[in-house]
Amino acid sequence: MNTGGLILVIGSLLSAVAAFVWVAIRLGSSGRQPDKTPATGLQTASDKDVEHIFNDEFREELRNRGRLHFEKVIGESAMFLQQDLRQTTFQLNDYMRGEITRTLQDEFKKYEQSITDAKQLAVDSIEKTITTIEQQREFLQRQLETQYENQKNQIIARFETEMATIINHYVLRAIGNQIDLSDQLDYILAQLEANKKAILEDITHGT
Amino acid sequence: MELKLPSGIVSQVDVARVLRELNALADFFVAAVARKSGTPMQPPRLTRLLTQLAQENHFNLLEESNRKELARMLNDVLGHAPLLHISFASEPSTKALETILVWMRGNIHPQTLLQVGLQPNIAAGCVLRTPSKVFDLSMRSYLQKQENYLVELIAGAARG
Asked: Is residue A101 included in any domain, yes or no?
């Protein structure tokens, strides 16, 4: 039921109430005007008949009927009103449910779209990060390999040098005190003979 | 004429010692001239080095002129004779040192003087230092020169 229907029901109820009030007023005003003039005997007689017909009991009966009718009309109108209100409430609920559902769906779509966009951005960012990390990893790996090779070569070179030095030192310590100078004379004289020219030159230029 | 040094005179210290001895002998003769007659005198004992030096160079130490000439020559040796430093791993025997000194005086310079040192870390051989050069004739130097060969051997053994 729409607003027009509601107004129509309320209007009919008000019309019924107005009619009932008008009937009650008419009935009340006719009972409070006694006519005591002789010229109107017939009128009086008729009034008496009327009074006789429309006595208090009859009036009470009419009131009761009117009350019942009014109550019936009121009840029916209330029932209609209740039905209309129930229908209106139902429709309003449907309307609200539809509107809310539609709004929620729109919001959910927007939210879903936002989530999708954010997800895509995150995925792009993660892919870029992964690419960068992979490049860094390759760069570091190359650096590490280079450093490893350099360090290995240095260690090997140092090992060779140190090992030779250690062996030399060991040999010198081991046999140093075991060789008598007399046994070395041939070697020393041979070495002096080999360096004779250089020694002579140095002494000649030095002295 | 150049002074001929005996093999017993090895270093400048020996020359200086002989020179001091010669001066003491000269002083003795001066004192002998100035002594009173009848005063007993004890002539200084000459060392084998000085005697040998005088004999080999035909000097008569009783004559003043000979002594002066010998002193002059010894001073000349101290000032001009080539001095070589030679180091051994251990204290050299007199015979070994004499052999080397004879070779030096026969091949390098007849008045060569040696200053002997010790370098235990050279193991064997010697290190000879002339006025401006060092001749490392030691086993240490020989082994160091052979280090590359040693490294090759080690590398070859490591490669299998």
From this structure: yes
